[in-house]
Amino acid sequence: MNTDGIASSLQQVHSRIQAVCECTQRPSEQVELIAVSKRQSAETIRVAYQCGQRAFGESYVQEALDKMADLADLDIAWHFIGRVQSNKTRQIATHFDWVHGLADAGHARRLSEQRPADLPPLNVCLQVNLSGESSKDGVAPTALAELLAVCDHLPGLRVRGLMTLPAPSGDDMAQRQPFRALRDLRDQLATPARPLSVLSMGMSDDLEAAILEGATFVRIGTAVFGSRSELAHFWVNRSGKID
After folding, report:
1. Is 87 domain-assigned?
2. Residue whose C-alpha is closest to residue 41's, from 231, 240, 243
3. What CATH number is given to the structural domain containing 203?
4. How many Cα atoms sit within 13 Å of 121 on the Cβ side?
5. Largest Cα–Cα distance of the chain, in whole Å?
6. 3-7, 8-12, 56-60, 210-214: lowest mean pLDDT where?
7. pLDDT digits (tens, 9 = 90+) for 39-56
8. Model confidence over 180-215: pLDDT tens digits?
9. Which of 35, 87, 115, 169 has the most CB atoms around it within 10 Å of its CB?
10. Residue 17: inside a domain
11. Residue at 238 is within a domain
């Protein structure tokens, strides 16, 4: 997608965000767009940056590190939105500003210990599995308080809020239900010392439902960069394998 195409797509997404915020009487500045740039080239990210986008979400560590090196001259906020793996925690802790899928106490301890001392604490959102499906990542709602208590004692982390990734639904009310459940869970567990002000929820097909229920981050890939079938190539790391 060329510069004009990305600029137009970003404007359309921001218009969608603004329209929902007006309905709920929220300032649109309360909802930040994370452009999901996995499988996009560094050149494409640079174009989006030139169009005003600053936060980008990556799911594959090696792919992200290669792009970070190519884009080191830009003040990008890098969000890790993939599954956290034990053998990747040091790289995540060293190079990312945010982690959106933390759901394991062991990973939390590793990220905190491996966060470089010259960097601020790593911003994290704890991923909640609201459906109970074993195939879905995330901590069960009943175990969230315990994970929060662990993270409260890890100086290398700053828990900013919660994240969820519900199953797709074509029904407006069904879309809103898991987002409402995450907001309610946040309201139950927030404290003055740990307000959990961030709700990371909503993607290209359901961002309106997420914002109506209080989303503060929406993670948008397709609506910004186009569908995966439209990509000219897939990113391959230096070993020749998908990370």
Report:
1. yes
2. 231
3. 3.20.20.10
4. 16
5. 50
6. 3-7
7. 999 999 999 999 999 999
8. 999 999 999 999 999 999 999 999 999 999 999 999
9. 35
10. yes
11. no
